[in-house]
Amino acid sequence: MSAPAVVPDSIDRRAKVAGRLYFLMGLIAPIGLLYVPGQLIVAGDATATAERIRASTWLLRVGIASELIHQAIAIFVVLALYRLFKDVDERLAKQMVVLGGLVSVPITFLNVVNEQAALTLLGGGDFLAVFEPGQLDALAYFFMRLHDKGINVASIFWGLWLFPFGRLIVRSGYFPRALGFAVMAAGLAYVVNAFTVILLPQFAPAVGQVALIFELGELPIIFWLAFRGVPGRRSP
Whose CA is closest to 183, among 72, 94, 81? Predict the structure, then answer.
């Protein structure tokens, strides 16, 4: 009996695997990064924020799970992209993995502890009886805001990894070069926005609105990878 034929791997298949993981990450990430904080945090009001968290503890837990899941997926995204681009420029592909997985993912995982701290403070444990209710509310609010600052730090690397990724898109010849330049523009927007929050917070709202427009430049390559791939291209 003859052995089954081995179907050769293809660049198209690698692209679609990377793109569909990337697409899944993009669906999950906004839940914990945008929706949940927007529903629970009342700017400048620790008591109102604490009341919302107590009333919707499940929502904060969903947000925490969302962050952990989408960052776990991020590891597989950068590995899949490395496999796609390693033959284009291995040095750039390695930079992409380091900045997109080895640095930003641990920061985000550790940052989730801040939200878990807020849950603990508002959970009513006996060991918290030494604190006044107002103190617990203020501490919970502090940790929620600290989580927000941690996301800002992680976003620096969400921007930096897009530079080698964008250069690989341009060099590969697999995709329209414009997609690579759009990805690098998105990376620059992430970095500029993050440092504006740190250095010039008074301008952060205005810069953030402009940066968001450029950050959307990351979306076309996700859809291209996931649903178009690189038709007809086989691995060397």
Answer: 81
How many Å apart are CA 100 and CA 119, to the nearest integer? 29
b (16+ CB within 10 A) / e for 6-29: eeeebbbbbbbbbbbbbbbbbebb
Euclidean distance between CA atoms 223 and 183, whole angstroms? 13
**What confidence tier does 36 reach under pLDDT thresholds 50, 70, 90?**
very high
Going from the C-alpha of 127 to that of each of 54, 58, 84, 115, the distances in angstroms are 18, 22, 52, 19
| Contacts of residue 186, Cβ cutoff 8 Å, sequence gap at least 6 | 159, 162, 214, 215, 216, 217, 218
Q: pLDDT band for position 9 (50/70/90)?
A: low
Are the C-beta atoms of residues 115 and 143 closer than 8 Å to each other?
A: yes
Question: Residue 10 phi/psi, 5° resolution?
Answer: -135, 155
